């Protein structure tokens, strides 16, 4: 209860809850500032060792991909030079007479840290660094596009509901009905031929754009459905009605009331979507419809690795291990992010 | 028509004020039901609210009671225009707002606010308390003296929270505190009418009293009119000057508090009041009538013809099925006390000669108990 002195001196005592007023007065110097759900999430995430470790690894990969030119400058190699065939490098041979790397484990040496490619003698380290760069940033671009499209479509469908939602839902179903892998392979040449004369060589940037378009067209549905379902449940919450009663416009309601609440599923979905997109892009290059020679690309390294697997199994080692670690860490990171956002789900 | 009726009189505010703030006439909301394959068509309608007449005077507190599913909340939502009325007319301060668009409604919006039932879902979990209370002011472009933040702190203090809670998040508060935040948000626009949709039914009983007292204080100090929707008769009695009783989408009886609680005429009101448990402090206390209804409220998809209460009423006759009773002032009632019944009850809640027990199972049980031990019954 309130002490008599407090009751006298507590000024305009409109507070119906004297208990509350007195307890908070005691720790006045400490500024009362609540922790937002976002801050709480960050705290939970920081406590998750696996999550922090995986986040570190993932960031490390992105840093490597960003600084590929720096790293190759350190190693003194580049991904395009044919060290096995170029006469400039005739004094330090990397390939034997059969076109296989000289030396231990695919030709690992001081010059070529991860060895060299059979037949051409290109430097695997440089190819991997640049290949990761291509893959990661392509995947990032595709994922961001997917997210934006999915969020927009999901928000519109979920918030407006009714007929709008019905038709958006049917369009989503239509796109979901495509067998994705098959259509990636089938559509890539079509999209390319649509814009570039088949007689001419397709520029690399255009291949990238084509991959972006195809993956984007056939990939936004999952996100749209997720956002739609979340928004559908949020729309019925009373705080949205409270905003309506205060006269807020639909745009404001979506922006201020609904969007901040969809952030957590979006972020979780993002951390799952990115590694799977990397795999898809690698698959495209592996199937021969993505990036082609001589563009360095993660998927293309696997394609060549498969070709050389019998003579030089070491060639597959570095790209493979790098990919496995990356995908594993990214997926574990996704799990940790989900756990941090919603400690009750999972497990 | 029965003999004991007078002219169909206007219901209206009694005592506290004479000026009408909100008038609702014949308000109707039918939710369509679609069915059929492959082409969906309207196969029926849930007649949630069907011709409700209601007035709220300036600074007056009107209670709206009835059992679950009778359309109380829908009425509240129609008045705040969260739902679009199917028919009827809502007049606020002489202005017809029945079908006003968001832009047309803008000047009135700030004057009609709402307090929601569930304090756990009525506050956005991602916004601070300050943002939540501030946002109605932002939407309506209101710049109070000394800035919005100062006003928010004043409001927090008014509803009995620490102004220092400004930067906290809703999840850090208890249910009662959250409901106070909801009240502060409703007050942020200095409204003239607040529709409180079961504001205390989600709170535990010890907190209910605090919040009701807060609302009462707010009503008295700021002169805000309230439409208080509740199913707790005791709270409505405590809070409201006038009470309207709803049954299956219709107002069956409306009048000042005194009339409804002590001189009810409609059988349903009698049944409702009799359902409130009351502790007899001593045996001398006045015996109250005992009415036990049987069965559920009929489906609002196909409500009974004529009087909607007739299927559960012990006084129902053929006339009740064929003719819908109008909401009129019966003879012997005070002004403003209107009842929709062909065969009204006596205006008293005292015990009658024989209890009305509609439930056959309960009746059989009581009869057998009475047969076995006739001596103990007095």
UniProtKB/TrEMBL annotation, chain A:
Put simply, this protein is called ABC transporter permease
Q: Does the keyword Membrane apply?
A: yes
Q: Which InterPro entries match?
A: BP-dependent_transpt_permease, MetI-like, MetI-like_sf, OppC_N
At the highest ranks, the source species' classification is:
Bacteria, Bacillati, Actinomycetota, Actinomycetes, Kitasatosporales
Q: Name one Pfam family in it.
A: BPD_transp_1
Which species?
A: Streptomyces spongiae
Keyword tags: Cell membrane, Membrane, Transmembrane, Transmembrane helix, Transport
Q: Where is the ABC transmembrane type-1 domain?
A: 132-334
Basic and acidic residues: bias regions: 25-34
GO terms in the biological process aspect are: transmembrane transport
List all membrane-crossing ranges. Answer: 51-74, 136-162, 174-196, 208-227, 274-294, 314-334
| Annotated stretches, region: Disordered | 1-35
**Cross-referenced SUPFAM superfamilies, in alphabetical order?**
MetI-like (SSF161098)
Topology within the bilayer: Multi-pass membrane protein
**The keyword Lipid metabolism is annotated on this UniProt entry:** no
Cellular component, GO annotation:
plasma membrane
Compartments annotated for it: namely:
Cell membrane
Q: Which family does it belong to?
A: Belongs to the binding-protein-dependent transport system permease family.
Automatic annotation (TrEMBL), chain B:
Q: From the UniProt record, which GO molecular function terms apply?
A: ATP binding; ATP hydrolysis activity
Q: Which GO terms describe its biological process?
A: peptide transport; transmembrane transport
SUPFAM superfamilies in UniProt: P-loop containing nucleoside triphosphate hydrolases
UniProt xrefs under InterPro entries: AAA+_ATPase, ABC_transp_ATP-bind, ABC_transporter-like_ATP-bd, ABC_transporter-like_CS, Oligopep_ABC_C, P-loop_NTPase
Task: Write the record's keywords in alphabetical order, separated by commas.
Answer: ATP-binding, Nucleotide-binding, Transport
Which residues are listed as membrane-spanning? none
> Which ranges carry the ABC transporter domain?
22-273
Could you say which protein family the record assigns here?
Belongs to the ABC transporter superfamily.
Protein name stated in the entry: Dipeptide ABC transporter ATP-binding protein
Lineage, top ranks: Bacteria, Bacillati, Actinomycetota, Actinomycetes, Kitasatosporales
